[in-house]
Amino acid sequence: MNTSILRKDIQHFIIENTGADLTKLALQKNPFPDVEWILILNQIEARTKAKDKLPSWFATENIVYPTKISVEQTSSEKTALYKASLISGNSLIDLTGGFGVDDFYFSKQFQSVTHCEINEDLSAIVQHNFEQLKIENCHFYTGDSFHLLEETKHKFDWIYIDPSRRNDSKGKVFMLKDCLPNVPELLEFYFEKADSILIKTAPLLDISAGLSELKNVKNIHIIALENEVKELLFEIHKNYSGPITLKTANILKESTEIFEFNFDNEKPFPDYDLPKKYLYEPNAAIMKSGGFDEVGIAFEIKKLHKHSHLYTSEQLIDFPGRKFEIQKVIFYTKNEMKNELANQQANITTRNFPETVENIRKKWKIKNGGNLYCFFTTDVKDNKIVLICTKII
Predict the structure, then answer these.
(1) How far apart are the C-alpha atoms of 374 and 240, rounded to whole Å?
(2) What band does 171 get if pLDDT is binned at 50, 70 and 90?
(3) Which of 89, 107, 192, 245 is the most buried (most CB within 10 A)?
């Protein structure tokens, strides 16, 4: 870690220029010729990114940031806080510590947290930052976490691991066996060191594919932030062989939408119906979970079609996702479209529909935006329809 950037004059410059245009700033003469200009610019860029994502770091003096990519790849504070609420105990070891955001919040749930990081510079940065953040129950190991686990006689309550999804030979990967470390291959070894393991995977990982690689899975957590899936977590326990629960969370500004159900091969059978007064679109975490039938049954609302994943009811309900009032339902025909939507402004969504949003806009000259929300979909009678709606806030 280059400590020169902690000089008071340089820190003041970084703070003063947070949010500045980096392209213009880079063309200026370096006011600190004894320190690399690119190093200072990197701190400004990373601190700018941290403003919304990592407000605790942003608000603390003398924080050192790693590369921009490390800041982009780290958990946000909101997802880390939620994740830490899922587990607790005496001791946790994070095998892939990174910038330490997760461990900052784990340290509030565990008496002792061990942060392992193979990158020496990043490990030093996290140690320094935790001193500034007043975290005193975190221990640091610089090197390959496998060696630490091999040597230690301590048994942890939890192992947390976020395998690297970049493979030297394969580039960016998603299957767990292709990540580093190879969790499926090392699972038995990990169970010698902890009875409970939390694994963070790529959000794009297919849940069934993850289950095919792992065993003893008790819970699967899908965490979305502002309706964008950010994390997929597999919670596994030694010798566990019971039902698997899928738990979804969509973290919003003022609340968190929670929905959970049992992951079962025997899917429940939902009720189908034609559009009624209100329309519901599940949040991104539920969509990722595949619990399309379960959510309809749980909230006692009708599904429009087996593959449409839109729901309807006569009475308005509190629902984990977007809610709309249906103003009109039209068949997707030339005359209906000309009369109702051609040359208009509307927000368009397609669900189980043969045309793309781009094609629909081009074909009917529909501008983006406005107060109308149009869902192009298929109903229970296999008719291609358009639901013209207004959004319920």
Answers:
(1) 46
(2) low
(3) 107
Q: How far is CA 326 from the centre of its chain?
A: 31
Question: Rounded to an integer, what distance in angstroms lies between the CA atom of residue 336 and that of residue 88?
Answer: 57
pTM over 0.85: yes
Determine the average pLDDT of the residues in 269-280.
95
Rg for the chain (alpha carbons), in Å? Answer: 25
Q: What is the DSSP letter of 151?
A: H
CA distance 118 to 17: 31
**CA 338, CA 168: separation in Å to the nearest integer?**
54
Distance, CA of 332 to CA of 257 (rounded, Å): 33
Q: Which of 232, 209, 211, 214 is nearest to 222 (CA)?
A: 232
One-letter amino acid of 300: E
Chain length of the chain: 393
For the cut 60, the answer to whether the pLDDT of residue 170 exceeds it is no
Question: Which residue carries 């941290």 as its tokens?
Answer: 50
Residues 6+ apart with CB under 8 A from 147: none
Q: Helices 8-16 and 37-53 meet at what angle, rounded to 10?
A: 60
Does residue 190 carry a pLDDT above 80? yes
Q: Are 42 and 22 in contact (CB under 8 A)?
A: no
Comparing CA positions, the residue from 61, 78, 233 lying closest to residue 159 is 233
| CA–CA gap between residue 373 and residue 349 (Å, rounded) | 8
pLDDT surpasses 60 at 376: yes
How is the chain split among helix, strand and coil, in percent rounded to 5? 30, 30, 35
Q: Identify which of 234, 282, 230, 280 has the alpha carbon closest to the alpha carbon of residue 251.
A: 230
Query: Tokens at residue 377, please?
Result: 């979909």
